[in-house]
Amino acid sequence: MYCDLHNHLYGCLPAETLFRIGKENPEPRWHIYVDAFEKAYGIKTQPKSFFEDYADIKKFKSLYHFKEKAPFLNFQAKFNLIIALIQFHEKEIREISRDVVLSHALTDVSYAEYRLMFSKDELPDAYYRKLIACCEGLAEGEAKAKSEGKFIEARLVMSIHRDLYFERHYDWMKNWMVKDTFLRKYLVGIDFCHIEEGFPPKDKKHFFNQIIKDNKAETSTALSILYHVGESFRDKSPFSAVRWIWESAENGAHRLGHALALGISPDFFLAEERTELVSERLDQIHFDLENYDSILEFGSYFSKEDLNVERNLLKTKVNNDQITMMMDSIKIRYLQTFQNFIMSKIAQTNSIIECCPSSNLYIGMLENLADHPIARFYDNNIKITIGSDDPGLFDTNLKREYEKAHESGLDEKSLSEIQRNSFLYTSPILSGREIIDLNQGQVN
Q1: Best exposed site among 164, 263, 356, 380 by fewest CB in 10 Å?
Q2: Which of 134, 132, 120, 123 is nearest to 179 (CA)?
């Protein structure tokens, strides 16, 4: 049996289902999709004739499936097709939740956490009703699977926005969970996803501290903290991207989504010119100097003198100015040192990295699966789980993701260990809502 801890509910939609939903929608939100898709792919779709132009499901799949190596913005352009075609009302949310749970149960997934995101300006009443609709759908999916001889436990993780209203939405959910036992059963975590550039983890430190404090104060409503980081980082150097991953773990994130920057081979960046804000580079230099002796235990690195000279120079500049860093062979060697240092630190925490091979291969623009860092994470004693991310968009399922992890360098014994341990990394366990008796192998 499998445990899928990283997937997005609407990203699970198979092409046939999305096409049907869109065709039944009297007013698709084409403005969300058309321009973004044309900008990313140079193809202008025609809303008036869309369902005739793509009536052949193979043609629709070629439009919908994301199987090319391209940056996050290209992926988002395709995900926008989902956002454009769905109506996102309670009945649809309930039905999709039910059907997705059943489909996963039929592929031997026995525990899954589904992520769902609402609009930033969703009003409290609508927010609550949609939450309940999703939970009802999850429960119906569990019951439907049971009637077909399959067992699955389905839970909800709410994705909240990095930039706005995240504290407000968290407070709403916590208050509702106190009063509503049904919601309390199914809602188990919060997640930060979507574009990560421009939203440093340090800005969420206070918020994460509050969640952890709340979890300890009332375990029955405890929520895990899930954080997409190190997946897309074109706005910074690889050094800063790696540091962001550590900051997320240090701040208390229970599971880290993707974290590619931490384990991808430094050679991936060779001869690249990376830019970042002066303030970002200053943060990195401060971190380097603060941890300098420990970093050196893992190999060669920038000299302390050079770091101090660079810091003094940058202090004369404006924080919002951009600086460039050429990733030459020397910096590649230093990056290897820094990655190994941070991996050693994360291995000592309870944070888990969620690896999604198909998603990482395409969005991470890796040359092949052998370049995926999952084996490196495993060899460095980092706790990992394997997820399907958006199996509808990537045309995959969790079994295939395990097969791809095998192609990435993990043997069958290691995969079996990851598969087994994933059931120990669920949100209720990580948040403290459920207590594991490690000696008895039971959850209380």
Answers
A1: 164
A2: 132
With tokens 């429960």, the residue in question is 139
Alpha helices in 348-436 (DSSP H): 357-363, 374-379, 391-394, 398-407, 412-421, 427-431
CA distance 303 to 326: 17
State how far the Cα of 248 lies from the Cα of 68, in Å rounded to an integer: 29
The answer to whether the Cα torsion of 158, 162, 165, 166 is positive or negative is positive
How does pLDDT run across 66-78, given as a tens digit for each residue? 999 998 899 999 9
Compute the C-alpha angle 364/370/371, nearest 5°. 35
Q: What tokens does 443 get?
A: 């959850």
pLDDT at 441 exceeding the cut of 90: no
Determine whether 156 is exposed, middle or buried from the number of CB atoms within 10 Å of its CB (0-12, 13-18, 19+): buried
What are the residues whose beta carbons fall under 8 Å from the beta carbon of 181, sequence distance 6 or more? none
Q: Would you place residue 194 in the very low, low, confident or very high pLDDT band (cuts 50, 70, 90)? A: confident
pTM of the model: 0.95
Reduced to 3 states (helix: H, G, I; strand: E, B; else coil), residue 158 is: strand
List all residues 6 or more positions away from 426 whose beta carbon is below 8 Å from its beta carbon.
3, 5, 111, 113, 155, 188, 434
Say if residues 47 and 30 touch (Cβ distance below 8 Å): yes
At 254, give phi and psi (nearest 5°): -75, -40
- Written as one letter, the residue type at 422 is S
In this structure, the dihedral spanned by the alpha carbons of residues 170, 233, 288 and 318, taken in order and rounded to 10 degrees, is -90
3-state secondary structure of 218: coil
Residue type, 184: R
